[in-house]
Amino acid sequence: MAVELTWLGHATWSLRTGDVTILVDPFLDDSPTAPVKADQVEADFILISHGHADHCSDAVKIAKRTGALVISNFEICQWLTAQGVERTMAHNLGGGSQHAFGHVQLTIAHHSSQLPDGQYGGNPSGFLLSLAGGGPNIYFACDTALFYDMKLIGTVGLDLAILPIGDLFTMGPTDALQAVKLLQPKRAVPSHFGTWPPIQQDADAWAESVKKETRVEVTVLKPGEKLSV
Question: 211 to each of 67, 138, 188, 221, how far by Cα in Å?
Fold first, then answer.
């Protein structure tokens, strides 16, 4: 089954598989690069990697409007419930769950996590999706530094890895290239760059470095563009 991903700017992604839509790290209304607003997206599931506003600021309004099930760590799920979100499913690092779209597991991410109101946001994470019906394995590294255990994540056989390249708050282009070498996905896509000047990067130059030093196919998207896997 074909899977369609749309980059909604910054680190926000919409993934469509069958009749299910998964929204990752919704940051739209205040994002200068988002091609749509929060009231324009649909979601059956929402994945939140950590508590920073540029990854979860629109989660409450979207979850209440769509009735989506929100999957995140325990602390973020508690925070969402206190704000009136009715459907959450708390995990911790390494934990996963099975759904209509397939399996999702929370992976390690080396970052920080504080919710928009200052509350503790629990451990940050990435997401490893193994989609149903023999569908692709997709890894969202989310906000993280480079770490050697990416090599273990890659042993599942990744069809796609979505990696931050912005630097400053996450790994930059040099470390993201090393991440590709550890993960060995069939395809890689850069994320978390270009939103503001401090994380402006030349994604095409990064793609060329990956192509030069690995056999991994790289696709660079603009906000609003789609990718089929």
Answer: 41, 19, 10, 16
Task: Give the integer Cα–Cα distance in Å for 93 and 126.
Answer: 9
Average pLDDT over residues 194-213: 98
**Closest residue by Cα to residue 216 from 170, 158, 145, 171:** 158
| 216: CB partners within 8 A, 6+ apart | 180, 184, 185, 186, 187, 188, 210
User: Can you list the positions of beta strands (E) in the chain?
Assistant: 3-7, 13-17, 20-24, 45-47, 69-73, 88-91, 96-99, 102-108, 125-131, 137-140, 160-164, 187-191, 217-218, 226-228
Report d(CA 132, CA 100) in Å as an integer. Answer: 7
pLDDT at 68: 98
Q: Please name each of the domains of the chain with its CATH number.
A: 3-214 (3.60.15.10)
The C-alpha R_g of the chain, in whole angstroms, comes to: 16
First to last CA, the chain: 9
Place of tokens 């469509």: 16
Which pLDDT does position 2 carry in this prediction? 80
